[in-house]
Amino acid sequence: MKAIVLAAAICSISACAVIDPLVYKINIPQGNFIEQRDVDNLRVGMTREQVRFVLGSPVVYNSFRDDDWIYVYRLKPGRGDLVEREFRVHFENDVLADVSGFYEKPADFDTPLAE
């Protein structure tokens, strides 16, 4: 009797490993999904409102430095590797001064927008 119970327990535990690849697992995106083409629209001297229009509202506001906005994106796929991206926007005197992070700085970033 003990052998039958033990065999049933082992079979039920090993069945989880067999069934797991067959179970659908959803992708879980969190944060701001930004693309390089969005970042390419940024120019030095843009106001906060203009940056918010281009990139959206940031997920994280630095509570110690009001001049930094942090755009974070995280994707936990049902299958595969975790994807994480972080992009920082820095303001000086309420205008865009610098950007850094996952995306490349645009080639014409230092050229202000025409008035």
UniProtKB/TrEMBL annotation:
For this protein, what is any one GO molecular function term?
protein-macromolecule adaptor activity
Q: Name one GO cellular component term.
A: Bam protein complex
Q: Which GO terms describe its biological process?
A: Gram-negative-bacterium-type cell outer membrane assembly; protein insertion into membrane
Q: Which Pfam families match?
A: BamE (PF04355)
Say yes or no: keyword Secreted present.
no
The entry's keywords: Cell outer membrane, Lipoprotein, Membrane, Palmitate, Signal
Indicate the segments forming the Outer membrane protein assembly factor BamE domain, all copies: 31-99
Tell me how this protein assembles: Part of the Bam complex.
The UniProt similarity line reads: Belongs to the BamE family.
Name used for this protein in its record? Outer membrane protein assembly factor BamE
